[in-house]
Structure prediction request, 526 residues.
Amino acid sequence: MQHTQVIILGGSLVGLSASLFLAYHGVPHVLVEKHPSSSPHPRAMGFTERSLEYFRLMGNFGEIIPQAPVGTRVRRVKAQSLAGDWFAESQWTPGSETDADPASPCHGAAIAQDKLEPILRERARVLGADIRTGNQMTAFCQDSHGVTLQIRNLADGTDYASRGQYLIAADGASSLVREQLGIQRDGVGYLKTVRSVLFQCPEADVYLQHGVHQFEIEQNDFHAFLTTYQDGRWVLMFTDNEERNDEQLQQAIRRALGANMAFTILSRGQWEMAGRIATQYRKGRVFLAGDAAHQLPPTRGGFGANTGIDDVYNLAWKLAYVLAGKAGSDLLISYDAERQPIGLLRHQQTFARPDYARWLNDELRSTTVLFGDTAMELGQLHRSTAVVGINPDLPEAAHPNDWAGQPGVRAPHIWLTGKHDEKSTIDVFCRDFTLISADANWLAAAGEIAVRLNLPIRCLHIGVDLTARTDLLSAFGMTSQGAVLIRPDGIICWRNKAHPIEGLAMVYVIEQALLQILARNENGCR
Prediction:
């Protein structure tokens, strides 16, 4: 029996991200993945600002990941063919506009999944991750103290057992773990089966100069979807679920291109398009993440893979704090409380947009407010006991500028000045809890609590430790007498806006907030 703190099942994008984030927090873990390497048929392509913010904290990814222009989302047109007439462009979110002042220090990244995964895998290993490819889970069970996996090494056929205190199941839409746990799923359900062909055609990249990357091919007797990985590789998708031989695929590719271009077929694919959300993301010591938790169709808003990356960033610090004895195990309840509603929201938002609106039933359509791209990516609200002081009447999402420091949302991005030049607040609010205030008394109180609770709290004095190009107090919705507490995942978890409190009362207020957030009492974890 091999022992570790956390086992991750699944080594694709979400599993690798979980491994990277756990390694960043110093959590010993094992990742088990049955395939020897990444899939040769790329899947996800667009990674949002928020995902890049996470990766930015893990190392200098800016030199590795090509950055897309500020504020862009993938553009799509209806077309006779790539080289033929383009009829009309459709927007992902009708009426949305590019922000004049970007709400993130990062831009979206256009990188194929099969190129990003090796970057994540290598970085996780550098940070200490134990990643085992070519290993397959054959069975698992959990008890009140941990989870045990039976694993087979596919290279030599040997079997062994691995036991961890917790399991992250990132084993895909057909998750065996979710099925065995008996967790149900809601949502629109099955949409269609999509067959695809991946091919190399560098000549076609000249048509990307107008910034359009997706093409709905519409001919009298031929309909397909063409898109690119922006590296000379293109993929053509069919929704008729008909199997095509090589000659038929070549003919379809020529029709979609609409011009005599040289190409080479690389691989074929087949997958199920569906909208399904697990009714719970946690059962016992097992957590669902990625497609195991939420199966969403591909979108121009990046709601699929990026939602899974969000999941495990939210979960990693919580596991780290619980395993280190800094928090009670009930902190882990907040993962399901925060992430499942966000998964459901992203399901509803997917089908409220034009690409998929025809599949949204009347009940969902009548209750779905269409949120803008920036609100969905950077302004979603997290509700749980790990956030203090949330107004129950608040919307599920809003533009970051509208939140102005509201507990439950991502701390706003603001460029810092002075010794912090070229740094964003996003770069500062990570790993540990952070308290910011213009009042030194709040900082002293937080320092006292840090000692009392044996908890690392970074205390930053606005105007001294933190200076910015804009008004930090306004951005966080407080006066010079207020204070804001930010979690290790960058979510604001408590705020005192303006009320003057003195001495021991300050200590008491911060302590009570942290005890609730971390599921602790005065005598320790519970």
User: Anything to note?
Assistant: Residues 68-72 have pLDDT under 50 and may be disordered. The longest strand covers residues 185-200.
